[in-house]
Design brief:
The protein is of the alpha+beta class. It is built from 8 helices and 16 strands. The longest helix is centred in the first third of the chain and has 22 residues. The radius of gyration is 20 Å and the shape is globular.
Length: 338
């Protein structure tokens, strides 16, 4: 699913001492509706390319499991059994991400819910037709939702969707999970000095000796302008959610592509949320949850996760105001002036 985010990484070396024989190689392919970038520091260009190709193939395999667009994806095959009472044997890969998603729902005060696809599809149509969805249609769609109605058989790795016509959408977690798995794959292939950019969900790995980390830039709310500060990351994941690309503007009100599971309505706050975490999965879904929750609750949510930080940027009188967890600024790149 296309889910562009207001974040980018910069191909700029932080330090070139002891750079030795390592060179940087960039590989890009379109995956999951977004450009996927794989950046590898390597002493062997041929081996780096082979590793990237193998990783892109793995991403294709994951897409065949996670996609809500591919009719025969494993996810959609599961959804066809919803409401029948049948337990469905699923792959360990799908079982794992569904468990993580339901944990996210329970941990986030219900602000993250992968069963919201019926409502999300109404809002996709609304953005395309440039008109708000009918309230009765939203209400009817919400009757088919609720992550609490996903049941798990942990022994036999089976899943049951209790409500009829349930449709799952992993768009708020799958790219972060995929980026994390892609980085792990590259490490197994011998390339820990690498970065994955899954359409804005970034997993920044290790770097060669002589480099301090990967530089990541963040957009300000409602604009393509970048913050003056850059993040400097190493062995961390980062994702930013905002509505700079996907939104519906009606009578001067901007409706985001992010839907509040409680109300079924698109959020209208002018907010960018950036989450730094130890893994891409948490960074991905936490940005969505923190975009929906009141700022105080969002900061409370982040406290539940070790080594995780958040920045919430809001517009007040056309100027950005920042709310941050205590450790967020420690990831800002230090300048000579500082």
């Amino acid at each position: 699913m296309l889910n562009k985010t207001a974040i980018t990484f910069l191909f700029i070396p932080i330090c070139v001492t002891a750079f030795s024989q390592y060179k940087k190689y960039n590989f890009q392919q379109a995956k999951m509706g977004s450009p996927f970038n794989i950046v590898i520091y390597s002493i062997d260009s041929i081996k780096a390319e082979k590793a990237a190709v193998a990783t892109f193939k793995m991403i294709d395999t994951l897409n065949e499991i996670y996609s809500d667009y591919l009719p025969e994806s494993e996810l959609n095959m599961l959804c066809r059994k919803s409401g029948t009472g049948a337990w469905v044997k699923v792959s360990a890969t799908l079982f794992s991400i569904l468990q993580k998603a339901c944990y996210a729902g329970a941990s986030s005060f219900g602000s993250f819910d992968i069963t919201m696809s019926p409502v999300i599809r109404l809002w996709r149509t609304a953005r395309r037709e440039k008109k708000l969805p009918d309230e009765d249609s939203v209400f009817a769609a919400k009757q088919r939702t609720g992550y609490q109605f996903i049941q798990f058989d942990k022994v036999q790795k089976r899943v049951r969707l209790q409500k009829p016509d349930m449709q799952l959408d992993l768009g708020g977690i799958a790219k972060g999970e995929t980026a994390q798995k892609a980085y792990i794959r590259l490490c197994h292939l011998g390339f820990p000095f690498s970065l994955i950019d899954a359409g804005g969900d970034i997993v920044a790995g290790d770097v060669p000796a002589g480099l301090n980390g990967w530089r990541v830039a963040i957009n300000l709310p409602e604009t393509e302008d970048l913050m003056n500060q850059r993040l400097l990351l190493r062995k961390k994941a980062v994702t930013t959610s905002g509505d700079i690309y996907q939104y519906l503007d009606i009578n001067g009100v901007r409706y985001s592509h992010i839907i509040n599971p409680v109300t079924g309505q698109a959020i209208t706050n002018l907010r960018n949320v950036t989450v730094i975490s130890d893994n891409g999965t948490n960074a991905d879904w936490l940005t969505k949850a923190c975009s929906i929750l009141p700022i105080k609750k969002a900061l409370q949510l982040i406290k539940k996760f070790q080594s995780t930080e958040v920045q919430i940027a809001v517009l007040e009188n056309d100027k950005p105001r920042f709310f941050r967890s205590p450790g967020f600024t420690s990831y800002f790149e230090k300048t000579e002036v500082e």
